[in-house]
Structures are given as structure tokens and as C-alpha cells.
Amino acid sequence: MSASLPNGAVLSIATTYGAAIPVTVLTNAAPPVATATAHGLTNLDILEVTSGWLGLDQRPARVAGSTTNNFNLEGHDTTSTTQFPAGTGIGSVRKVLTWTQISQVMDPATSGGDQRFVNWNYLEDGNAPERAKPTNKAAKVLILKLADDPAQAWNAVLKAADAAGTPRIIRLALPNGSFIYYNSYVGFDDEPSLGFNNIMQVSLTLTSAARFVRYAS
Q1: DSSP track, 35-48
Q2: What's residue 217's pLDDT?
Q3: How far is CA 45 from CA 12, 32, 42, 64, in A?
Q4: Closest among 84, 76, 92 to 181, alpha carbons compared
Q5: Do the Cβ atoms of 157 and 100 come closer than 8 Å?
Q6: For position 133, what pLDDT does the model report?
Q7: How far is the CA of 9 from the CAs of 33, 98, 102, 210, 214, in angstroms?
Q8: Residue 33 contacts residue 41 (beta carbons within 8 Å)
Q9: Fewer Cβ close by (within 10 Å): the C or N end of the chain?
Q10: What are the chain's domains?
Q11: Nearest Cα to 176, choosing from 6, 61, 1, 46?
């Protein structure tokens, strides 16, 4: 058993990406093996995946077991042919080329992820309590306040990501050496808050486009 604190964690956003690399075969495996002729990727590269499998589409992945024409999508499991029908997962990947640290993070908060339900009664239930069945979960949102500082490089990067309206890979490097990667829509409000005797802050909202992936090191 263990307990961890996020103190000292470093948050970064993907600044630039390489060109999309077509994936011609994607296997049902853990991890799935991708075939892409002369892909040029190396182990530990971070990718954004585009796939015909919704359970893999837009998710971050790390390259492992790279050879000339194949590589593994580390941390993913596509063994279920019910969820991942064989032969239908092909698409493309693109590599994160550069990162920009999002520094001066204050007051992080999360919302969403709560379980939703469908509620109903049968006519013959009479006045019995209604029935409930779990459905999906609410979208996950990470809300961050950043100390206002126009000199920081993240201002321009976050403004551009907000304007583009497309997901960006977010990297959270934890003090224990592990990493969490998200793919999130970026909402950035660069108008600073004005509270007497309070640090001026700007607001960053990260809305998940797909489920995160975590690596122990």
C-alpha cells in the first residue's frame, strides 16, 4: 500500500506534432502492434492515435518494441474482439515533437467522471422504488488557475490551442517518476482575475477527448 502527493508535479502541453503516419495493420493484443512502413519512431515517443476503434481513437500512447515497420502501443489492450473488431482499427499516429511546460499552476480542481444512470419503473411495480441501471460517466474536466505572467511561453501556446479547438496531448510528470498523459480540448482565459490581496490568475480548462493513459516510469 502507498499514498502519494502531487506536490512537485510538472505539467506540459504538446506544442508541435509530426506528420500523420498511416497505420496499415493494428492487432488485437496487449499491447496492440501497429504496422507502418519505415515509420521512423523510436521507443518512448509519445503519440496521438487515430483509429477506427473508438476505444483507442484520440488516445495518447507511448512507443515500445519499435522495429523498422512495427511498434507497440504501450499501455493499451485491444484483445477484446467485441470492443475492438478485428481488422477495423487501422488509422494513423502522429508523434509529439516538442513540449511547453505549463508553470505557475495554482488551485487545481477536477470535475466530472461521476456515474450516470437510467431510471425507470414497470407498470406493475406500483409504488415500489424506481429501478436504476448505470450507463456512462460524465466528461472529465481539469480546471487550473495559473499565476498571471504574460512573459511565460505557455501564454501563446495555450491561446493557439484554444483557438484551434482540437485536442492537445497533456503530460503530467509526477514526483515518483511516473507519467500520466491526457488528450484534452484546451480552454484558456487570459484575462487575469482581480481580487484584493489575491494573486492575479488566469484560467485553463482541460476537457478530456479520450481516456488518459498512465506509465509507471
Answers
A1: E-TT----TT-EEE
A2: 94
A3: 15, 16, 6, 8
A4: 76
A5: yes
A6: 97
A7: 31, 19, 11, 22, 14
A8: no
A9: N
A10: 16-97 (2.40.30.180), 101-215 (2.40.30)
A11: 6
Using the structure block, give the residue that is written with the C-alpha cell 499565476: 147
What is the per-residue pLDDT for 107?
85
Instruction: Provide the 8-state DSSP code for 125.
Output: G
Each residue's pLDDT, cut to its tens digit, for the chain (217 residues) gives: 788 889 999 999 999 999 999 999 999 999 999 999 999 999 999 999 999 999 999 999 999 999 999 999 999 999 999 999 999 999 999 999 999 999 999 989 999 999 999 999 999 999 999 999 999 999 999 999 999 999 999 999 999 999 999 999 999 999 999 999 999 999 999 999 999 999 999 999 999 999 999 999 9
Residue 202: beta bridge partners? 146
Rounded to whole angstroms, how far apart are CA atoms 165 and 207? 11
Alpha carbon distance 187, 202 (integer Å)? 11
Nearest 5°: CA angle at 113, between 112 and 118? Answer: 105
Task: Say how many CA atoms lie within 13 Å of 63 toward its Cβ.
Answer: 23
Residue 197 buriedness (CB in 10 A; 0-12 / 13-18 / 19+): exposed
pTM greater than 0.85 (yes/no): yes
User: How far is Cα 57 from Cα 141, in angstroms, rounded to an integer?
Assistant: 19
**Contact (Cβ atoms closer than 8 angstroms) between residue 90 and residue 78:** no
